[in-house]
């Protein structure tokens, strides 16, 4: 990799006299024709002009002849030609004469020898801030970042990897385990008063066994998904049960129905197993009470998940049925999501009323008191989870409907080739002259070696750019950073997630360089796809 020129060298200077000043009409016409440039993403463009103008008055050592460059193909736009364009390198071009003249101090002030240059050999690269999804480089902000792969899918305490799928216990599980221990312990005090304080140990065992049943329920979904060759990101045990995060949708309504039904089916099987165990042990004992509690709990889990509304398993089964009838997966999602929202309202109003009337097995209660408040709070939490899940299902369905619009070919930026020792200011000048928005470092044979990061360009002050080589701001091109121009939709997002980076080299099937794809551009298109109505 090349290094930046030493002190006293002016990379953009010319040994010739400054160009004559243009007339006022010519300057105004040139300003009207000027388009936004790559280096205008940072402030103080006037300082850059002054710095480059000062470089024009200093002598420059003889530069070696520029190496041949390769043609970069501009991404096609409506009504424009797609022929390759090779910008003419002008390493010794003088700055425009219309820029303000530098002062004598600016002409003679040498660079401090102790000041390290990012382009010098042995100089460590400064860590660059990451994009925040809106094209800034300050590391602040947020929003969905689909192309950025997350190597650690985290989400709590890792318990194991059955079938290669990580299982996490969320922190909220410990809260619900404590709640179950307290509630079930109170019931044991009435059924088995002789246990005393040991009843809470029995209750804790029940909480763990119950969530083990929930894990078996989720493993049923996971095994079915793996059987259908659908990737599963993780299983997470949460406050209200668990979730299997399957990263892709099924291809047919039949598989969708099977994938959703196996979870409640296995919960019913577990309830039958616990019922069979109850028949073996003596009633009124600790094993008998535990088996009875686990049987009832699994029956509740199966019945609740069979309710026909997203995001529950019954909602996915309803979605599969409507999908099969209409032939449109989006229609099934809309129907199941709205049923899920109606179900959320029913839970919010109906669950407290059923508890107070004794319809769920308890004694009728008067309205008021702590029990009523607890029932209302539990109903509100359940309703919020169902309502939010239904809305998320709608948004994800809308996104998948618009994903084919995300095409690498249409999102790719035009790029210009530069050598590793090229000063940043000169590289930006070539890019601006060519109407490009990306830089690719090439070797002597014109083969691409690295992509200059936009975040690194923005972080370099204007007055330092003539002395910073592009090699210190680039990321080497790995195999995963070379992507096909034909990628689109979910396949494009999967490719970007597999190799997280800020820029990617886009190539044709023939190997010809097409341009540079910025992850920030994909993220913006992703957000627009989510916001666009169906």
Automatic annotation (TrEMBL):
GO molecular function: peptidase activity
Cofactor(s) listed in the protein's UniProt record: Zn(2+)
GO process terms (BP): proteolysis
Tagged with keyword Cytoplasm: no
Comp. bias regions, Low complexity: 41-64
Alphabetized UniProt keyword annotations: Hydrolase, Membrane, Metal-binding, Metalloprotease, Protease, Transmembrane, Transmembrane helix, Zinc
UniProt xrefs under InterPro entries: CBS_dom_sf, Peptidase_M50
Residue numbers spanned by region Disordered: 1-155
Subcellular location, principal: membrane
One Pfam family per UniProt: Peptidase_M50
Sequence ranges of Pro residues compositional bias: 86-99
Composition skew (Basic and acidic residues), residue ranges: 25-37, 104-139
Compartments, as annotated in UniProt: Membrane
Ranges where the Peptidase M50 domain occurs: 205-278, 292-345
Membrane topology (UniProt): Multi-pass membrane protein
Keyword Cytoplasm part of the UniProt annotation: no
Annotated transmembrane regions: 165-184, 204-226, 257-277, 289-312, 333-355, 367-390
Family to which the UniProt record says this protein belongs: Belongs to the peptidase M50B family.
Protein's name in the database: Site-2 protease family protein
Species of origin: Streptomyces huasconensis
């Amino acid at each position: 990799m090349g290094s930046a020129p030493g002190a006293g060298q002016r990379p953009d200077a010319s040994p010739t006299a400054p160009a004559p000043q243009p007339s006022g009409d010519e300057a105004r016409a040139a300003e009207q024709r000027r388009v936004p440039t790559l280096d205008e993403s940072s402030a103080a463009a006037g300082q850059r002009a002054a710095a480059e103008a000062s470089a024009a008055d200093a002598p420059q050592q003889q530069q070696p002849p520029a190496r041949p460059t390769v043609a970069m193909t501009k991404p096609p736009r409506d009504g424009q030609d797609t022929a390759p364009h090779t910008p003419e390198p002008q390493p010794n071009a003088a700055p425009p004469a219309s820029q303000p003249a530098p002062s004598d101090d600016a002409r003679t002030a040498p660079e401090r020898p102790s000041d390290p240059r990012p382009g010098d050999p042995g100089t460590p690269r400064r860590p660059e801030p990451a994009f925040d999804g809106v094209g800034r480089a300050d590391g602040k902000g947020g929003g969905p970042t689909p192309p950025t792969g997350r190597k650690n899918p985290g989400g709590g305490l890792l318990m194991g990897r059955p079938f290669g799928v990580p299982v996490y216990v969320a922190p909220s599980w410990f809260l619900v385990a404590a709640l179950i221990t307290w509630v079930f312990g109170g019931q044991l005090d009435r059924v088995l008063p002789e246990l005393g304080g040991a009843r809470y140990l029995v209750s804790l065992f029940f909480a763990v066994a119950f969530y083990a049943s929930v894990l078996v329920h989720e493993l049923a979904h996971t095994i079915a998904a793996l059987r259908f060759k659908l990737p599963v990101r993780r299983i997470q045990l949460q406050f209200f049960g668990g979730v299997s995060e399957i990263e892709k949708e099924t291809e047919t309504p039949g598989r969708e129905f099977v994938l959703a039904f196996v979870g409640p089916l296995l919960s019913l099987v577990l309830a039958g197993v616990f019922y069979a165990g109850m028949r073996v042990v003596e009633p009124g004992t600790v094993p008998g009470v535990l088996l009875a509690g686990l049987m009832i709990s699994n029956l509740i889990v199966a019945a609740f998940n069979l309710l026909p509304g997203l995001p529950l398993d019954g909602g996915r089964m309803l979605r599969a049925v409507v999908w099969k009838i209409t032939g449109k997966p989006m229609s099934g999602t809309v129907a199941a999501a709205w049923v899920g929202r109606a179900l959320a309202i029913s839970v919010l109003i109906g669950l407290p009323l059923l508890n107070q009337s004794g319809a769920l097995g308890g004694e009728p209660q008067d309205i008021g008191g702590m029990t009523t408040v607890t029932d209302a709070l539990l109903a509100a939490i359940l309703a919020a989870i169902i309502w939010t899940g239904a809305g998320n299902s709608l948004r994800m369905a809308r996104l998948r409907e618009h994903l084919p619009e995300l095409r690498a070919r249409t999102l790719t930026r035009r790029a210009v080739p530069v050598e590793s020792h090229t000063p940043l200011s000169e590289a930006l000048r070539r890019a601006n002259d060519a109407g490009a928005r990306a830089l690719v470092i090439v070797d002597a044979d014109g083969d691409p070696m690295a992509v200059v990061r936009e975040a690194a360009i923005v972080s370099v002050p204007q007055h330092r750019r003539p002395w910073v080589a592009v090699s210190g701001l680039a990321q080497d091109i790995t195999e995963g950073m070379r992507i096909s121009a034909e990628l689109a939709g979910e396949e494009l997002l999967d490719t970007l997630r597999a190799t997280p980076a800020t820029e990617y080299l886009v190539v044709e099937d023939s190997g010809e360089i097409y341009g540079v794809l910025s992850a920030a551009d994909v993220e913006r298109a992703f957000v627009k796809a989510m916001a666009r109505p169906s």
